[in-house]
Specification:
By secondary structure, this protein is an alpha/beta fold. Residues 629-655 are annotated as: Disordered.
Amino acid sequence: MCPCLLFFVLFIAALCLLISIKILRLTNLDILFRVRDGLRSGKPFITALFRIDTESQRHGGELVAEVLKAHGVRELFTLCGGHISPILVACEQIGIRVLDTRHEATAVFAADAAARLRQDIGVAAVTAGPGITNTVTALKNAQMAESPVLLLGGASPSLLKGRGALQDIDQQTLVRSLCKFSARVTCVRHIVPTIRNAIATAKSGTPGPVFVELPIDVLYPYKSVEREAGLSNAPQKGLVKSLLDAYIRTHIANTFSDAWQPEQPLLPLAVRVPRPTTTQIEQLATLLSTAERPLLLVGSQAMAPPVKAAELAQTVEALGVPAYLGGMARGLLGAHSAIQMRQERKTALREADLVILAGAVCDFRLSYGRVLSPKCKVVTINRNREQMLKNHGVFWHSAMAIQADVGSTLVQLHQRMASDSSAVDGHQRWDAWLNALRSRERDTDTRNEAKATERTADGRLNPLRLLRMLNEVLPDNTILVADGGDFVGTAAYTVQPRGPLQWLDPGAFGTLGCGAGFALGAKAVHPDCPVLILYGDGACGFSLMDIDSFVRHRLPVVALIGNDACWAQIARDQVPWFNSAVGCELSHVNYDGVGTALGANGIRLEEPIGDAELRDKLRQALAQCQGRRRNSAVAEEKDGTGGNNGTTDDDNGGQSTVINALIGRTNFREGSISDRPRSSMNVDECAPVRERLCPSVPNPTTCAPADQDFDQSWLEGLEEINQSAFRPRVVR
């Protein structure tokens, strides 16, 4: 069979199949009525058969906006692109605030933050091709942080898929490993059910990101799609052109068939959340009531709905178990809880006889489980079975594993304990345990306070002093965003979030570059709360340009940059190991000047500066970012009238501030999680480079580790695995 004839046969077969699929949904009477109406109106046969309103100006972006609105979405984060323009316009018209950023990753990070703080879905929309590829890091971070994020991505027209269209790539394959759910919408009528299903999937079970691909021909009005396809009412000359015209018309007609179904449901689908059984609660209550030295480790997953953060905080306080909080759970118990511990966690875990991992995971953050005493009973609660049992049987063993929602499990545990008088009596045995933990914590705090008064070898501002001053002036409703390595690691032990959902860090992925996105999402959700980004000077380079976004959208934040002109967390190992600082050195950039150029205030902090002046400058910056600022200059430039581009924010004096803190280098984080095992080389050979790059850091072989959670060598862990876990075993 010649190629032309084969093409002709396949073409006719595809056309007949498409028409048949449509006709099979109709009764014979419906077909006759549609053909009759088409003849009367003079419309083409295909258009009449599919009953398309060719004059309608409605578009698929309206359906996207409507279903998002029905799901309670208030913000859409984006970087604009022609593929997704209908979505942005429709969302603005329906009352969903559209916040555009300077990088697609920032948009997804912002949606991630909004999802965490609202305990609901967060939504971002980006254009096709490079728009999607730019989101990969943020998507992976949302996956590992278990954040329910919906990413809407544009795509080339369906008819041009795989034919070399602009920015046409295989986006589904790209994101499939990053998302719980991914789908491509091929018809306008499928937009609503696909997005509803995606949102329900994102929030069910273990939360995570989902992706919906929306081609141009699904989003734009019929007339626009028809025009771009090159169709006209003039008769086509020749058989091939006539068949091609009929095929394209049929495809477009099917795309828009039944597009605006009035009965199509928009409301959210049911979300599936795993719950603990009564037997599991009974067993856990028994373990807790008989424990002498229990510990509760609360991880990020505990903050997932349906249990609200305030209820969870009350529950944990009422249980009375000494608790360590990590990730999104930081701040759950406020800054002054009697049962919350922050220091010496490794020692406490070695002494405990019962450890409840409430959303905490035995990964690198718990030294893969090696910090758990083999004599203690370990109970792990997690929605995700893989995370719940990570490294189980290698370094640790569980007495009980509950695959269920963490918050619901703790609430039911408290209810069971409260109903048992013998369990209440058991709490008295924990007083001595609590007192011992508090005493150790006070000793560590005293040592850290002394470190804060030390002068750095290079004479610059001591970061411990700076962060302790910040902690003193921090308003109670401040939301803290962590984006950095060494500076943020120091802040984690110094700056205390004041309440639930007031600390945002990337989570287990440990990525940099989340700062501006997290802050934008936080300020959008809580516009009247101060939002403070704790930036390392390396990390700020990923998203500092989005200071412009805060200014344009009148969402003021404070960016505090710890500027030590170094990738200090990397240099801390590289220099003593290899006697080289290559790739680790930065410069003391004028970040306050960058902030000023982008429309923010710029403040420079450097020695000499007294404590009172330091507090005043920090307090002033935080006060300026409370509330929303109406930037009339930007508004006038946008609409030419001095209006505020559709928002209702008043000018209350709020303004973003970039604080450039020129800090010195300390040995506070020696022995921390960032450190790798020291090599066997003679460290004295490294002295020249070490003194030049890290002048305040003493010889690493003699430096006593600061109080950090994880100072075990990861190589020791690998050796233990090699010696025991991977020995040949007989399988019976």
